Amino acid sequence: MSTSASQTVYLGTPSLRIAHPATWLTSIRPAVTGAARGIGFALVSSLVKRPQTVIFAGVRDVNKADALNALAKDASNLHVVRLESGSVEDAKAVAKTIEETTGKLDVVIANAGISEGYGDVVDVAPAVFERHFQVNTIGPLVLFQAVASLLAKSSRPQFAAISTAPASLTNLMPMRMTAYTLSKAALNFLTLRINEEHEKDNIASYAISPGWTQTDMGNAGARAFGLEEAPVKLEDSVAGILKIVDGATREKTGGKFWDYTGDELSW
């Protein structure tokens, strides 16, 4: 990221760089879940470089988030908070911390997720589906319920849910990831409901597919399907996600399903 004399911010890798006015970008208050590693950690690492931005990074176990805690030592604008996905108590505690620290919230990037139990529908235990819904669907729901009033105080509130392209109902892919994709399809519908119900608050709610990204989870999935690694570089995914978030408006972005490349996907 760099700024020019005219206060323009440039984000992303060379292929995804985009210029934006610095005013909103450098003073937002985002909350990122699943921030201990992978896409979440990379998002926080990028956001923390923006001046006057206050980031709330949610993790399941604060004491085990070594890389994130190390980053926070040198970044006074980064707050590491406990957030077990689906925990009402944790979500309320995070909302209280945000209210006491900044008074409002501009962006939620609901990134925390799990992907396991690959196989045909007939072979995957119901408990696997339950775990996926608890983390991938109920987690973002509970967090939104806790912070909705804080988002409503923002001039450009956003709820960005990290989904997956294989969760599309109209573009069915031959991947045996049913528990994962089913929970993400439900998450997609949640973003639509939020966008429809919160027009009065001007909340732009939408889903983003980060691509099949080279993270621990992404690479594990790739190996399960006979690939050496996932095809999308982490830095490209993160740059694409932030490009969407930075330019998002309710009219243009809300109620839609986006690929990290900026292409609109079919629900």
UniProtKB/TrEMBL annotation:
Family to which this protein belongs: Belongs to the short-chain dehydrogenases/reductases (SDR) family.
Stated name of the protein: Aflatoxin biosynthesis ketoreductase nor-1
One of the record's GO molecular function terms: oxidoreductase activity
Domain of life: Eukaryota
InterPro entries associated with the record: Fungal_SecMetab_SDRs, NAD(P)-bd_dom_sf, SDR_fam
Originating organism: Rhodotorula toruloides (Yeast)
Keywords: NADP, Oxidoreductase
Pfam families registered for this protein in UniProt: adh_short (PF00106)
Keyword flag Nucleotide-binding: no
